Fold this sequence. Notes:
Elements: E1 12-14, E2 20-22, H1 41-48, H2 50-69, H3 72-94, H4 102-117, E3 121-124, E4 127-136, E5 150-159, H5 163-180, H6 183-186, E6 192-204, E7 207-218, E8 224-233, E9 239-240, H7 243-246, H8 253-264, H9 271-280, E10 287-289, E11 293-298, E12 311-316
Parallel strand pairs: 5-6
Antiparallel strand pairs: 1-2, 3-4, 4-5, 6-7, 7-8, 8-9, 10-11, 11-12
Helix pairs in contact: 1-2, 2-4, 3-4, 8-9
Amino acid sequence: MRTIILLAYRRCSLIIGFSIVCLVPSITSAASFDCGKARTNFERTVCADPQLSARDSAMAQRYDGALASLSEPGKTILRAGQEQWLKVVQRLCLDSKRAEGPTSCMRRQYDDRLDDLRSAAVATGPFVFSRNDHYASIGKQDSTGIPLEQHTGLPRIDQPLSAVAKQWNAAIVHEAAAAQANWCFGDPDTAAEQVVDFKIQSATPGFINVKMLHYELCGLAAGSDDMNNLSYLLTPTLHRLKAADLFRPETPWASFLANRASEVLNADGDADLNDRINKDVRDPAAWSFTKPGLVISFNPGDAGPMAAGILDVTIPWKDLRRFVTPTAPIPR
């Protein structure tokens, strides 16, 4: 007997064969699936590999734990994401031939989903955040014919679901849709792998800062990463953070940030690089709010070589005290 989370629902559960079967309420016990009765290729692959079986057991625990912490709408969204994930893994790992083999492919997919489930129900500040995941496999690689993968994971306030929380949830979806228009250099017809994830950096009753992370592989181009901070003040009305919400306009905050970033990134003497740094430090989309300090993130190529990836510069809040407003949303 091994635990197998081939179920997308709790009471009427979606098995990998994609038929709906009503089972016992819990999927965390070892008796929830009998590998001696495995019917589908997915089931047999999981049962045949101890590492996959162990991953499945861990997934069952995280999935159940998240469900127990979520509201009914949150449970529905999590179940829908799990159902999509199961279908996409079937297509990517079992319905197509890959050089890595189905078992290795499924191990990788399980690892990714396990990471996602870590943030499926997380209490941060006064909120419980959940995930709104959308999995798909649209298109194929031109050179190999292997199906492409698309996964967008967005944060969602699950509790308390106040009017402003609903507005914030809608704003995050809107921002994600707007960002999608720029994928693959603005060419929506390009076959691509796309992955969007997030990290809640700060959450207080009046402010939420989320760092959005994006990876894409467009056609035959090399894969690339980028980030974008979505920072919203919740009071008195919901609005995107502006520079004036953090810094007093009459102070030389921008030049201070630029000089500190240039020093940390060893950009002295490089006029072009310093121009890009000076531009980026002024953009609230580059700012993450952490307890140690304000983190300024530079996308690949903005403050160094493309191969260096995303570069972060942390400036302690104590160094910024003379520049910030009295109501600045500094994490405590």
